[in-house]
């Protein structure tokens, strides 16, 4: 290997289909229809499903979650709520901080990402984790703590607005 290249790994279509099927199985198990997107490390769609009953608007958001997770190499929902709108606008609305996107990282290499949408943030994340778990050795980001506005425990702004008298 020279200074001009680095080693890389890539999620295959076969792997993406395994991720998709595992995510669908978990969504069925929790009784929540989902839109599930699986992308390669460049954020390009490899596999997608919109389960019967999943929200039509979640087609776009789940794909953006997967793309964001792959390209940022981090779970979605981890940016602080105070900056999420600015970052979304800076990325032409293709970046999202909605909870439910996970990079698929194996042996330190991001190989792709999976995301789910149509449930609560916690449900979306659980379905994405179930999908990622279909790839042996994938990091499931068990220590991830969401920080976005979608997490109902977060209040925007650190200071209350001044009261005018």
UniProtKB/TrEMBL annotation:
<dbReference type="Pfam" id="PF03928">
    <property type="entry name" value="HbpS-like"/>
</dbReference>
<dbReference type="InterPro" id="IPR038084">
    <property type="entry name" value="PduO/GlcC-like_sf"/>
</dbReference>
<protein>
    <submittedName>
        <fullName>Heme-binding protein</fullName>
    </submittedName>
</protein>
<dbReference type="InterPro" id="IPR005624">
    <property type="entry name" value="PduO/GlcC-like"/>
</dbReference>
<dbReference type="InterPro" id="IPR052517">
    <property type="entry name" value="GlcG_carb_metab_protein"/>
</dbReference>
């Amino acid at each position: 290997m020279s200074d001009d290249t680095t080693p890389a790994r890539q999620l295959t279509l076969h792997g993406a289909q395994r991720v998709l099927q595992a995510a669908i199985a978990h969504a069925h198990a929790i009784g929540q229809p989902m839109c599930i997107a699986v992308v390669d490390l460049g954020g390009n769609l490899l596999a997608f499903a919109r389960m019967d009953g999943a929200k039509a608007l979640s087609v776009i958001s789940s794909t953006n979650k997967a793309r964001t997770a792959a390209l940022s190499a981090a779970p979605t929902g981890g940016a602080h709520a105070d900056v999420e709108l600015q970052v979304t606008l800076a990325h032409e609305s293709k970046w999202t901080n909605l909870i439910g996107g996970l990079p698929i990282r194996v042996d330190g290499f991001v190989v792709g990402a999976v995301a789910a949408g149509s449930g609560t943030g916690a449900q979306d994340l659980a379905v994405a984790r179930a999908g990622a778990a279909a790839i042996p050795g994938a990091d499931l980001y068990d220590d991830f703590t969401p920080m976005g506005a979608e997490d109902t425990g977060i209040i925007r702004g650190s200071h209350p607005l001044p009261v005018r008298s």
